[in-house]
Amino acid sequence: xxxxxxxxxxxxxxxxxxxxxxxxxxxxxxxxxxxxxxxxxxxxxxxxxxxxxxxxxxxxxxxxxxxxxxxxxxxxxxxxxxxxxxxxxxxxxxxxxxxxxxxxxxxxxxxxxxxxxxxxxxxxxxxxxxxxxxxxxxxxxxxxxxxxxxxxxxxxxxxxxxxxxxxxxxxxxxxxxxxxxxxxxxxxxxxxxxxxxx
Length: 198
Known about the structure:
The chain is α+β, with helices and mostly antiparallel strands. It has helices at about 50-55, 60-65, 75, 105, 110-120, 145-155, 155-170; strands spanning about 25, 30, 80-85, 90-100, 125-130, 135, 140, 175. The protein folds into 2 domains: about 15-55, no CATH class; about 60-175, no CATH class. Residues about 190-198 have low confidence and may be disordered.
């Protein structure tokens, strides 16, 4: 979406969640989901010459003013990505919120529930996701739509129940390993033993 969408004055700081959680499978750089990029230590070793997929990427926290300072991914345990998705045959902009922190703690946070409640009522397409084991795709489920709007109109307590059911569903699903399509700049083996905490 480009840096024209970035919230002025909002920088990544010490956050490196985008170097760990997402899949990057591009001819210029590859990284399996949930694994540290081989260039990531206490920061990006190649930041000034980082490849285009990294240079062009901004997480939802960098792009949505409604997400305040406490929503930075390494502080909140919530990694948001705005991207295109096909829902009911239509290509739409959707927000995927990956809970890389403690899901129970996150979905019981009033600010998180309020954000979901507001955006369901505004018909934003929202996916909730849980990371899989290192090298496995996050599992996600759509939590918005007409049924969710009906629940949201009954209040935030109903949205909290919706989130609890979504997390239970995601936890019941088997992990799906990811095989890289590209090669030449893959995550190193040692990265498999490292984990992210929020």
